[in-house]
Amino acid sequence: MEMKQNIVFIGAGSMAEAMISGMLQKELFLPGQISVMNRSNHTRLKDLSQTYGVTIGQNNEESIKNAGIIILAIKPKDVAEAVLAIKDFVSEKQLIISVLAGVATTTITDLLDKEVAVVRAMPNTSATIGKSATAISIGMYANENHLQITRQLFETIGIVTTVEEKDLHAVTGLSGSGPAYVYYLVEAMEKAADDIGLEKDIAKELILQTIIGAAEMLKRSPKQPATLRKEVTSPGGTTEAGIKVLEQYNYQQAMVSCIKRATVRSAELGEAMLQSVSQDN
Fold first, then answer.
1. H or E segment at 240?
2. Which of 135, 168, 201 is the last residue of a domain?
3. Contact 108, 82 (CB under 8 A)
4. What residues are paired with 98 via a beta bridge?
5. What 8-state DSSP symbol labels residue 119?
6. Do 18 and 150 belong together in one domain?
7. Per the count of CB atoms within 10 A, which of 43, 113, 248, 260 is most buried?
């Protein structure tokens, strides 16, 4: 269903581009409904305009006032500067969607000093191929309609789930950072393939299809991951021998600790961001 309102992106990085691409492919917006602005990289804005047909936001006041939805897609450290630059032009009829890791909705509403609806989203980098796992949560002035609009937007780049805002740190540690954990595993598998003498291109193809196939099995099968693992692990066989080595290295506990530490770090960064914004204002 095509949206009737205009949308403006504050920030023009890879996440903004992924969202623009997804929204246009799913025909949620027409190119003329989308404008993009950033602080200084005009070359980047021109590239996005040429590629997708979107409008370059030349004037803060005009771009913001003409938009029903404002997407904050800058670096988290730039949130105060970006929000204060548009503060005078934002109205309480608009919806602000933030993809800024660690920045609370209250931080944004406090900077605006208005009762504006803010929804936070935590997508991941797989958004660039339409496969993001995104979690969204609403701020104090947002309602169910704002939530549904946000869900529609992010469904153009993957799957969407709704969580309480307090749980977004956990989402960041799990699925926000999650692609990197998988890439790290693939790095290890590629190194192992080289050590055991497999040709690089062949190994890469086998590794990628193995991961894709396993993920699809997990998605389609009603069986638990432990059950699927045990079905592959014959007593005295090769898989069992390999799993025993992983157990010796506490592989599962290492992954659990990894995700917990990333979660804690998200909270630490969020607190530091809150203090920084408070000091600046």
1. helix 238-248
2. 168
3. no
4. 72, 120
5. E
6. yes
7. 260
Which tokens is 110 given? 């406090």
| 146 and 196 together in one domain | no
pTM attached to this predicted model = 0.90
Q: What is the CATH number of the domain that holds 200?
A: 1.10.3730.10
The Cα 21–Cα 130 span in angstroms is 9
Here the tokens at position 11 are 């920030």
d(C-alpha 195, C-alpha 140), whole Å: 55
The answer to whether residues 160 and 188 belong to one domain is: no
Say if CB 130 and CB 157 are below 8 A apart.
yes
Beta-strand ranges (E) seen in the chain are 7-10, 34-37, 55-56, 69-72, 95-98, 117-122, 132-138, 158-162
| Number of domains within the chain | 2
51 and 83 both lie in a single domain: yes
The pLDDT profile of the chain, 281 residues, written as one tens digit per residue, is: 567 789 999 999 999 999 999 999 999 999 999 999 988 778 999 999 999 999 998 778 888 988 999 999 999 889 999 999 999 999 999 999 999 988 999 999 999 999 999 999 999 999 999 999 999 999 999 999 999 999 999 999 999 999 999 999 999 999 999 999 999 999 999 999 999 999 999 999 999 999 999 999 999 999 999 999 999 999 999 999 999 999 999 999 999 999 999 999 999 988 887 777 766 66
Q: Which domain holds residue 184?
A: 178-249
28 and 144 fall within a common domain: yes
Q: Do residues 185 and 208 make contact, with C-beta atoms less than 8 angstroms apart?
A: no
